[in-house]
Specification:
5-stranded mixed beta sheet, 3 domains, about 325 residues, globular, 12 strands, alpha+beta, GIY-YIG endonuclease, 5-stranded antiparallel beta sheet
Length: about 325
């Protein structure tokens, strides 16, 4: 039975760390990286407790499979402590897509994303059209969802059409003339058969897509999200400043002046995972907000109120 090496070298952000096993890692939020004997990056993960999560990985080496093969090659574990879960999520997501670890199953390299736009169709019926974001375009507007492919966008539309009784024919998802097949099954309210006006169908389509609409970036400048640890573990940052512009993550810093210096950098490409991580944090009020340009504290337009305890590990 294969098992990981008895002695594993530990580092913290590339610098040697005392110890040879998971028990010697800090028990705090952060990102961890597994490297093989040749220095190749095997895996990137995150946890609110690095010590506990890596210990779970090593126990999994007893069971045959993909993870056992990865852990058998493991020679070094690097940890990157963060002030809290938000920083760990942002750092993990950025690392996976920039560093391309061998064993991460999730999407490693950001691909071009698709959204939906409503365009006029025959008879005044609006038709959702899948549109690809150009490379490097920031998420500053409020598109109707983010999808990994044109096919995924079309599948989502078909699901919404079935759930809301919308007509796939007037939506442009099905060819032919006259009443659609779904109308014959009483799953379409009859836009294709003259039973529902374009105005009524369009209104129901807009309502069905409302939940897909992404929030526009509500700030004029880059934003600093302050995250604090309630009781910092040894080696854990007491606080971090996450720099965000147009829903794009620019980096995390333990000094506010360092964070402000890079806030003028150009926004990166649209990233669905980053958007959802940040929106969730803002809605929970997990962090304090500060304008990077003026250093002023800002109100949270998403309703969440910062809780100083939520940055705790």
């Amino acid at each position: 039975m294969e098992s990981p090496p008895d002695t594993i070298r530990l580092t913290r952000r590339g610098r040697p760390l005392a110890g040879t096993g998971a028990a010697d890692l800090p028990a705090c939020a952060g990102v961890y990286r597994f490297f093989d004997r040749g220095g190749a990056l095997l895996y990137v993960g995150k946890s609110i407790d690095l010590r506990s999560r890596v210990s779970t990985h090593l126990r999994a080496a007893r069971s045959p499979g993909r993870e056992q093969r990865m852990l058998h090659a493991l020679a070094r574990i690097d940890c990157e402590p963060c002030a809290g879960e938000l920083g760990a999520l942002l750092r993990e997501n950025a690392a996976i897509k920039a560093e391309l670890p061998l064993y991460n199953r999730r999407q490693r390299r950001p691909r071009r994303l698709w959204t939906l736009q409503l365009t006029p169709g025959p008879g005044g019926f609006l038709q959702p059209a899948a549109t690809c974001f150009p490379d490097g375009e920031a998420l500053a507007d409020a598109p109707l969802g983010l999808y990994h492919s044109e096919q995924q966008a079309a599948a989502r539309l078909r699901t919404l059409a079935r759930a809301e009784g919308l007509c796939v024919r007037v939506l442009g998802l099905e060819g032919g003339r006259g009443p659609c097949f779904q109308f014959q099954l009483r799953r379409c309210r009859g836009a294709c058969a003259g039973k529902e006006s374009a105005a009524a169908h369009n209104a129901r389509l807009r309502a069905a897509l409302a939940d897909q609409r992404l929030a526009a970036w509500p700030f004029e400048d880059a934003l600093l999200l302050e995250e604090r640890a309630l009781r910092p573990a040894p080696g854990q940052p007491r606080q971090q400043w996450h720099v965000i512009r147009d829903w794009s993550y620019l980096g995390s810093f333990t000094r506010r002046d360092s964070a402000r210096r890079i806030a003028g950098a150009r926004s990166g490409p649209v990233d669905r995972d980053t958007y959802h991580i940040l929106l969730g944090a803002l809605r929970r009020g997990a962090v304090a907000l500060r304008c990077a340009a003026t250093d002023r504290c800002l109100d949270n337009p998403f309703g969440g109120r910062p809780d100083r305890d939520e940055g705790a590990a």
